[in-house]
Write a structure and sequence with these properties.
five-stranded mixed beta sheet, four-stranded antiparallel beta sheet, 4 helices, nucleoside diphosphate phosphatase activity, magnesium, 9 strands, Nucleoside Triphosphate Pyrophosphohydrolase, thiamine diphosphate phosphatase activity, NudJ, alpha+beta, Phosphatase NudJ, about 160 residues
Length: about 160
């Protein structure tokens, strides 16, 4: 019997400062790739909390989501196994906070860097996902939705209370 289809849920921080976007360079099975600070939503957290956590873990910058940029769905094939994967990405815009330069970055993250939109556009072949550039373009177009469009029932947060 085939297992039911379940897309992975990821959260991403789209952070702009002085015309540059915060990106991370990370080790993958396909070599070094570029991405926004992003990762899987963990049990017991809201999407906004997960985004703030991932931004800190991957870039050493605090980040406070203030708006939903969008929800994005994309497929990819795992190079190591050929497995077809689908991801639902919730991308957020928000406020850049304190940088913790001595904080260790997540496993696989080589460095955080700031890139212009043109540099991001010119490096599409190095993007971890086709959603990386789309999120930047939506940000630049002014796309923004209130955080209240994402409702998290209190029973999700109870997972942290166990």
């Amino acid at each position: 019997m085939q297992s039911p289809w379940k897309p992975g849920v990821t959260v991403a921080a789209v952070v702009e400062k002085d015309g540059r976007f915060l990106m991370v360079e990370e080790e993958t099975n396909d070599g070094l790739k570029l991405n926004q600070p992003a990762g899987h939503l963990d049990p017991g957290e809201t999407p906004a909390q997960g985004c703030a956590r991932e931004a800190l873990e991957e870039s050493a910058y605090e980040f406070e989501p203030t708006a939903l940029l969008g929800m994005y769905l994309a497929r990819s094939r795992k190079s190591s196994t050929g497995e077809d994967q689908t991801y639902l990405r919730l991308a957020f815009r928000g406020e850049l906070g304190v940088h913790h330069p001595h904080r260790a970055l997540d496993k696989g993250i080589v460095r955080a860097l700031w890139m212009t939109p043109d540099e991001i556009r010119a490096s599409v072949d190095r993007h971890r996902s086709p959603l990386v550039l789309r999120c930047v373009e939506d940000y630049l177009s002014g796309v923004s939705y209130p955080l209240s469009v994402i409702y998290t029932h209190e029973n999700v947060l109870l997972l942290n209370a166990r």
